[in-house]
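Structure, all two chains, one model.
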Amino acid sequence: MTTMEQTTETIQVYRVYIRATPEAIWTAITDPDWTERFGYGGRGEYDLRPGGAYRGWTSEEMRANGAPDLGVDGEVIECDAPHRLVQTWRMVMDEAMVAQGFTRLTYEIEPGQGDVTKLTVTHDLTGAPRLAALMNGELEAQGAGGGWAWVLSSLKTLLETGEPIRP
Amino acid sequence: MSSNDDDRVFKALADPTRRFLLDRLHERDGRTLTELESEIEMSRFGVMKHLRVLEDAGLVVAQRSGREKLHFLNPVPIRLIHDRWIDKYTERRVSALVDLKNELEGKTG
């Protein structure tokens, strides 16, 4: 059963509608001065070209709790600002997650109705069940954050109100 | 989130068939209409209608994969409602209770 689950395709899809421009959403995802204001709150640094590096640094709060400096690493696969960003994504804070290898993450930003923009996050977590549990929020009660739904809810709040969800 | 969006979420959730469909997707995500239909005593048209309501509320996202249309559970609208009323005020206390429960169960177990 366990081996079955590991080979089964695991894709998580999250969508949120945000009253903001596609450019503002793109900046919030790719500019470290913005990424530290929502979700897990670390600085995300991108070299925005195919093959360019991605480094997701941990937040001060995470480091105060014993986390290493680097939280996530990866590589840009496709970059079409402000519409589409595809990258590899690997959590490096946890040995079991490192062992499960790189996952594939896609951000799609499309105009919605009126001044609303549609953001879809597709995370292909095939072969990474531990990371899948983290990203769908199953580990929230253990203090591991609420995964993508939590991240996108706080991104919406930040962009629509200017306020980080947790001060 | 506008109150109109909230209305759609609550209306979509106010139906046992639609909650059943969400439960099936929570159990295993990315299913086709045919797969979902096989788990429920209802016509294909009926299941399609319920999926449409869930999609309109943003609770289900459909994506094309080759010739198939796969349905994914999107928990973000529920999270937005959670963060609006629960997270701000009570989450820390809830976490503390969970810790306490784990600690107590660990001690007695």
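Chain B has two domains: 1-74, 76-109.
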